[in-house]
Design a protein that fits this description.
Layout lengths: L1 H7 L32 H10 L6 E5 L2 E11 L7 E3 L8 E4 L2 E5 L5 E8 L5 E3 L16 H10 L1
Antiparallel strand pairs: 1-2, 2-6, 3-4, 4-5, 5-6, 6-7
Amino acid sequence: VEAVHLIADGKAPRIPQPKEGATYEGIQKKENAEISWDQPAAALHNWIRGHDKVPGAWATIDGQVVTFYGSSLLDASVPAGQELAIKGASRPGLVTKNGLVVFGNDGKMVLVRNLQFENGKMIPASKYFSADETTALELTEEEKKMAEDIR
């Protein structure tokens, strides 16, 4: 009760909290989440996983900021895939049927499952090279007639 009265009267002591021992981390900003490629695979995985979902760990691919989501350590032989140059990486990534494989400076691998582009479009990493492909819709004669009737 005494503390409440001190606060109400504006006489409560104000003791600043010391910085020593504080565990709060400020809000992460996107510009601070760029991936530093000169690290072991476990550190890369932890960085990507630690920034998943906000703000998202990112790297530059083909001059565009690409955000990486859904990483896991890959303990297997190097899979077959199409090479993808990543700015700052000592070794190109591999786009495989399971996702994007990136390499740590220890030669071990990290599998990234999803990628998001600057325009907000998210794709499975395994579809990186087929993301721009579009298929034309071909209608049967019956469907063409139905489309005309609808028009």
